[in-house]
Amino acid sequence: MARAVVVGLVALGALLSSPEARAEKVRLAVVELWSPPNLAGISAKLTQDIVSAASRDPDTTVIEPAAVEKALGPEALKSLQSCNGNAGCVAQRGIALPADKLVVGTLDRTEASYLVKLFLVDLKAKSVVSTVDRSILIASRRLQSDVAAAIPGLLKGKAEAKGKLTVTTTSPGATVTFDGEVIGRTPMTIEAKPGTHTLKVLKDGFLPVERFVNVEDGAIDQVGLVLTAIPGTKQEEQLVQSAAEAHQTHSQAGSGVTIPAASWIAGATALAAAGVGSYFAVTAGQLESKAGEGPVYGITRQEAIAGKRNALVSNICWGVAGAAAATSVLLAIVLQGADAQPVPEAAPQASLAPLPGGAAVTLSGSF
User: Fold this and answer.
1) Threshold 0.85, pTM exceeds
2) What pLDDT does 215 receive?
3) Which of 24, 90, 248, 293 is the most buried (most CB within 10 A)?
């Protein structure tokens, strides 16, 4: 009896270990990413990252890009790459491949960003299982790391994750532009794909603010931006008026030391010039960081000229700010006490003196 049980267990183990009893591996074909010739090296590296990630799954058999090209031929491969993720097109043109699923995609770029699109297509169901669609700033130098982080989710058929970004400004109601698209006014919350994005806020009477922001998977981040009034505008005049009113209130309180209104205005001008200089300095610094150290720079010639101009404007503004600050101090010293009550002068006087043949009238005093 015991021997029969042992024999049965051995037979069951052999049955379970047989290829027929085990679940069949998924056959995944990886197609070389399409890209323009100048990005061929980068697209080849990203394609290899997909192959490496898929090969780590013990339940997946990977058909590498070279084998795909050999099975289809160069012309059929180009035709497959041009499907742009259309499931029916991919299934029809990849029918010759011994695969269950297929990864296809493209790599392109704009002046400022890399554009990455990846598709996992079920060839039998003729449907797209999952996608990755990213716009990654060239200046951020995060192309490979961001794509590598997205590949495992793509291969598992997961929907692409998103994060949230709450944007506020010191003066509410500023127009928000996100990755070149106007999306609303502050304060607001943005839902976006993980990665580095461009954020720009604009409001009449204030200097524009532009910066890079990073969105994390599933996170809610806060971004608070300070808006600086443009010199000569209504907003800047309100700042000066507020400073003058504060001076007047201080003088009426009889606190002893007073600062003349002209000094307040010069000081406000210094602050405004410093704000403008800071903005152009930050903009020039961002372009310098974006350019990198070479030998291949990450900016265009037009951007390089703009960066040089911004640096020059920043230096001029800081010079104006320094001169205005010095003027403010000098006015405070020279005009100190000018608002005090004047000492009464002697009243004017008149006298009449008789002279031979007439008389003389003499006037004296302050007029």
Assistant:
1) no
2) 84
3) 90
